TrEMBL record:
GO cellular component: plasma membrane
Family: Belongs to the DoxX family.
InterPro entries, per the entry: DoxX (IPR032808), DoxX-like_oxidoreductase (IPR051907)
Organism expressing this protein natively: Rhizobium lusitanum
Protein known as: DoxX family membrane protein
Principal place of residence: membrane
Coiled-coil segments: none
Subcellular compartments: Cell membrane
Source taxon at top rank: Bacteria
Keyword line: Cell membrane, Membrane, Transmembrane, Transmembrane helix
Membrane topology label: Multi-pass membrane protein
Residue spans crossing the bilayer: 14-34, 84-101, 108-128, 134-156
């Protein structure tokens, strides 16, 4: 029987307090870092897709029409309506990262980027080990953890929680 075993301020208590502090720091810092880590590669790609405001670059159009093919069960398939797909991808690669940076509609943006990662995996099947696995893991972590306290989602949640309490409908 040592003093550390029974004292709330002993070694066990200290370790528990430190572990709780580490958890608090992690739960505050991890969500925005994850959001930024997932947003950056998609935003950087999205910025290369445009020649001007809503003017898709010729290179992007060519890639989706001629180069990008879906690898499904050993066969190659072109994208249906490649110009429309290129335009939607270009928009998504700009708007979804912005939503992640702001922490607005965070889980939906992460889900959309997870789906995009799955499609990208079908286009570049050898990219899973270097990129796609990590993008998918980050998207899943964001979907599981949520946006965190440093986000518009959290501010909106707090605003509506407060107005519900003030309205007397708790």
């Amino acid at each position: 029987m040592t003093a550390f075993q029974y004292s709330p301020g002993g070694l066990r208590g200290l370790i528990l307090r430190i572990a709780a502090l580490i958890g608090l720091i992690g739960s505050s810092v991890a969500p925005p870092i994850l959001r930024i880590a997932l947003a950056l590669p998609f935003l950087r790609s999205g910025l290369t897709r445009w020649d001007g405001f809503l003017s898709l670059s010729i290179g992007t159009q060519y890639l989706f029409e001629e180069q990008f093919k879906l690898h499904i069960l050993g066969n190659l398939y072109g994208f249906p309506a490649p110009d429309v797909v290129a335009y939607l991808v270009g928009l998504a690669e700009i708007t979804l990262p912005i939503l992640l940076f702001a922490g607005f509609a965070t889980r939906f943006a992460a889900l959309a980027l997870l789906i995009m990662t799955g499609v990208i995996q079908l286009v570049f099947p050898d990219g899973w080990v270097n990129f796609h696995l990590y993008w998918a893991a980050i998207a899943l972590a964001i979907m599981a953890l949520g946006p965190g306290v440093l986000s518009l989602d959290y501010l909106i949640y707090r605003f509506f929680s407060r107005s519900t309490v003030q309205g007397g409908t708790t």
